[in-house]
Amino acid sequence: MGTYSVKFLCPGYETMVMDNVQILADSPTEYDVAMLPVEPLNMVLEIRTELGYPLPNAQLRFPGLAQSQVYQSNEDGRITLANWMPGTYQIELSAPNHEMLQTWLPMQGPHIRLTLGSSATLNEDFETDLGNWQTSGTWGRSTSNVHNGSYSLADSPSGNYGGNQNSFCRLVNPIPLQGVGNVNLQFWAKHNIRLEGDYCELMISTNGTQWQYLDHFVGEADWTLHSYNLNHLQGANLYLQFKLRTNASNNSDGIYIDDLKLYATSLPVSIQDQSLPGPCISISRYPNPFSDKLSFVIESDKKLPSDLLLSIYNLKGQLVRSMILESQGQISQTLYWDGQDSGKQPCANGVYFARLSQRGKTLQTMKTILMK
Ligand SMILES: [Ca+2]
Ligand SMILES: [Ca+2]
Ligand SMILES: [Ca+2]
Q: What domains can be seen in the chain, in order of their start residue?
């Protein structure tokens, strides 16, 4: 119950925000939402390091989309998406030795820049000692299987683990995550753990006493990078531990862990839409409601560009009419709509949306009412 602002997101449509949505206790809440379709664009994503250098070989995925394509940045750190529907997308961006970015990204303009941090808050290669870790059972450093250097962390450094184990290796001091923007835990693991009743658990906590399950490892796997988005722990202290649990019989070698890193970027994850740094353009219309002729006045603080498009949509989101502004460099120009569709048929009375756009990017949207 109460009053909410509700955001509607859909790839291929403009994001809509509806304010003052009343949720009542005793009746369902129903609203008609008209979402405006958008035109596909060619988008360039620039992937940069935190120092601003282009980052090649970064991989971009869209976990929310059915297509499982992976896009890779080129030598200039660029990924080009051809004929891409503007919208807000769930993205996963990663690069070797950099944090992984998982976020909802507004992709509206033709040019988007993203930064991936490379400095880890915690960088544990297990080469020196286990001073940062508290252990029980047989957890220790191993030289028999390493991902990098001479040592890794292992549940049983020499030989197989024992039966009926419930042992742990946990961080002594928590990692503070106050004032960070993006939290990503990564490590490499290799394991051979019997399927029937043995497993290694990864657990996290914000107070060191109540532990939450994050992942578990069982069966046989060669060195694999595991990566976890922990953005929901921003502002907390992060404790983590690995736990080995085994049953009475049938033992194997166990698990090896190496190159454990926690990226907690305090730099803003810069998502800058650098398109259209040009003039500031505004549109107004009169009269509203209108019956036979609606005037749109388009004004700018500089010369109007010549590639502005005014599109009229009905409440179903169908394009009714579009008009191109043929500017000769004026700062103000008027377009007229006679209430007819593109086939010169009169439109029905009702609500219409007018959208002013430039090269696919929406500059302004407004509602208008046709009432004959
Ligand atoms: Ca190592
Ligand atoms: Ca067992
Ligand atoms: Ca072992």
A: 41-117+269-273 (2.60.40.1120), 122-265 (2.60.120.260), 281-370 (2.60.40.1930)
